[in-house]
Write a structure and sequence with these properties.
Blueprint (H helix, E strand, L loop, with lengths): L1 H21 L11 H14 L4 E6 L5 E3 L2 E2 L6 H7 L7 E10 L5 E8 L4 H7 L4 H9 L4 E3 L15 E4 L15 H12 L17 E2 L2 H10 L4 H24 L6 H14 L4 E2 L4 E4 L21 E6 L1 E3 L2 E2 L2 E6 L6 H19 L7 H19 L38 E4 L2 E4 L12 E4 L2 E5 L4 E3 L8 H7 L17
Helix pairs in contact: 1-4, 2-3, 8-9, 10-11
Length: 486
């Protein structure tokens, strides 16, 4: 029986291997190139101190419920440096060359999950060590089961750079999984605590969990041409989604339907994911900044609908918000609040250029909103403390929706959001006519050599432009499904 099982396992592996080798695997042709990832590793290496090693772990698999996991999403740093999308992996980048067993020099090494015919039959293809060598151009790539025996004296480095652990990784009981890799790494470096003996005096400890993030912030905050191409596509997809919803919007639609239209457009353009949970808040729900329930079954005729959604395309996410009237026409009060937010946003965008600080553009927007609220009678003075504009103006976007990047001075090839807002919930200390008006306008801009480029220009921004687009016929008006029985 054991012999038969070995034959079955061998046959399954051969089947999986031949299936992958014998079929044309159809994939998009605009992923980041191996040269990009290699260049990012070289850029990191240039920042690292002498006699150091940087260690990165793949993201853990997250459980949704029982035997169902969430769709796997790679750690952005890991993907940025490798292009590898699978779990249970570890990457080491060395400042100086190391010597392999066979005598060859190397300055990086990756350990990845091995090929497994039975697992691949259920959950999809794996690259394995040879695939990573061939497809991702790593000279030193090994299966994760080999990490335990990897003989590297971490104590010989002046700095071992890594992100500290959150102790949220499940043990899958599969040899070489992420849980094992972390345990083995902790043992190799004499990581403090958790039963690991500390044989190194504190003043000689070479573990550094702070500096690596500084380097990654510096790298990821400035986008390369390859990254900008993907970000442009993600932003275009997201803005087209906004336009299609403007045309399809009518009272009686649910928040979930609106979310579905956006995300259908995303998928139509081959966006793999949403960059973050979609926010569709009608009326008072728009006053909840990160409202993601989206369960209002029927939007009324008089409500504004705040829609904050972003497509993720090949890892890079847009972040675009539009606020529109459900019936296609802003009420006088809604229009005044909307136009005030637009005025603040436009002023901040126009001031954006290299050398200007985040603080400066934030103050421009906030001053306009505070002064405008006084003119409208919502507040008593521009210095009055209030919660009608409770969030910041801007953040980086990229592999994360709130991407890594410096928040000091704007620099060329940063991609940031500009997103002022006003939110007036019911029972606020102002005239009742302003209650439940929530407006946020969020656009994505590229900082250029002497100014900015508005990336999200395909979605109208002014109140008049929005009303004009909302008069257009939607192809979705003909998409009518049968009613379900109660």
């Amino acid at each position: 029986m054991k012999t038969l099982n070995r034959y079955i396992s061998a046959a399954l592996f051969l089947f999986a291997t031949l299936t992958v080798a014998g079929q044309e695997v159809k994939l998009p042709n605009d992923y980041l190139s191996n040269e990009f990832h290699k260049g990012r590793r070289e850029a990191l290496r240039a920042k690292m101190p002498a006699n150091s090693v940087a260690v990165f772990f793949a993201n853990p698999v997250r459980n949704r419920a029982n035997d169902v996991d969430y769709i796997y999403h790679q750690d952005p740093n890991f993907y940025y440096l490798t292009g590898y999308k699978e779990p249970h992996s570890v990457l080491l980048i060395f400042k100086e060359n190391q010597k392999a067993d066979e005598g060859k020099d190397y300055n990086e090494i990756i350990f990845v999950q091995p090929r497994n015919a039975r697992a691949e039959m259920w959950t999809g293809r794996r690259l394995g060590d040879k695939g990573v060598q061939d497809k991702l151009a790593f000279a030193q790539a090994f299966n994760n089961t080999e990490f335990a025996a990897y003989n590297l004296d971490f104590a010989s480095f002046d700095k071992v750079l890594f992100y500290d652990f959150h102790n949220d990784v499940r043990d899958t009981r599969v040899v070489g999984d992420l849980y094992d890799l972390i345990v083995q790494f902790k043992q190799k470096v004499n990581y403090p605590g958790e039963g690991v003996a500390i044989n190194v005096e504190p003043e000689k400890q070479n573990l550094d969990t702070e500096t690596l993030n500084t380097y990654m912030v510096e790298l990821r905050g400035i986008k390369t041409p390859e990254e900008l191409a993907l970000l442009r596509k993600a932003v275009d997809i997201s803005t087209i989604g906004q336009v299609e919803v403007m045309k399809a919007m009518q009272p009686g639609l649910s928040e979930t339907e609106i979310q579905g239209i956006h995300e259908f457009v995303f998928k139509k353009y081959q966006s793999e994911y949403e960059g973050y949970p979609s926010i569709v808040g009608a009326g008072h729900n728009g006053c909840i900044l990160h409202y993601i329930e989206n369960n209002n079954p029927a939007i009324s005729n008089t409500e504004l609908v705040l829609m904050d959604l972003g497509a993720e395309y090949h890892g890079y996410t847009a972040d675009v918000t539009r606020t529109i009237p459900s019936n296609g026409k802003f009420s006088p009060e809604q229009k005044k609040i909307y136009d005030l937010v637009y005025e603040a946003q436009e002023a901040a965008i126009q001031a954006s250029k290299p050398g200007v600080t985040f603080r400066e553009i934030s103050k421009i927007a906030r001053d306009i909103i505070n002064e405008g609220l006084v003119e409208l009678g919502v507040t008593d003075s521009a210095s009055q403390r209030h919660l009608y504009y409770p969030h910041g103006l801007s953040h980086h976007i990229g592999l994360d929706v709130h991407d890594k990047g410096s928040y000091d001075v704007l620099e060329e090839n940063m991609v940031i959001t500009i997103e002022p807002g006003i939110y007036i919930p019911s029972n606020s200390d102002c005239d009742k006519k302003w209650w439940n008006i929530a407006v946020r306008i969020e656009d994505d801009i590229l900082i250029t050599a002497d100014g900015f480029e508005l990336l999200s220009h395909l979605a109208p921004r002014t109140s008049d432009e929005i009303e004009e687009v909302m008069k257009q016929e939607s192809v979705l008006n003909q998409f009518i499904l049968p009613d379900l029985k109660d």
